[in-house]
Amino acid sequence: MMYEKITIDHSILYIEQHHVDTFKQMATKLDNYSYLLKEGGITLMDGWIMAFNIWLLLLPDDDIIIKTDETSIYYTANVLIYDAFKVEAHFQNLKERTDASPELFYLSSLFLATGLNEWIKLVMEKYELHDMMERCKTRRYFEALEGTDEEIQIFLEDQAQFVKAAVQELREGSFTQMVKKCYDEAYFLYVDQYQKSLL
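Now predict its structure.
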């Protein structure tokens, strides 16, 4: 399964191996929900890594610290999106639910990763980042820094263009609409399918 390939290096957050292991255990337990994760602006494997990072953001705040090393400098789009999640009301409502279970957080991370992947595609299409879209089909986003110097430079230019477009799109409200939709879908699936499957 793709989620087995997730490592500590796939996050710009300070995490430990137990975070990766816990996510993988949940993914194995709920493997029959893997279909929820879909491609969009970046590859399906990168979608799994997004799901993992979103799941990390749902953990208590004292567990989540953004790295201040070169990783966060190279992945400026991630920092922007993480900050958008942190202030988004529906995301915070989910995070602060007193009745939330690890399964709800996991299923929500899959819905939100798919929604985010679709939102990334929307931003690239709307702001005509066509060359970047083509590169994202073949390039693994979370392994971009393993490329040649020229590939890394192109990646950094893509990041700058995407951040500029994403900042504009965040003002339009589509990100908030996406989070609300994904939150609602995750909660209804959790109640209507997952909880009923336990009976």
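The mean pLDDT is 91.
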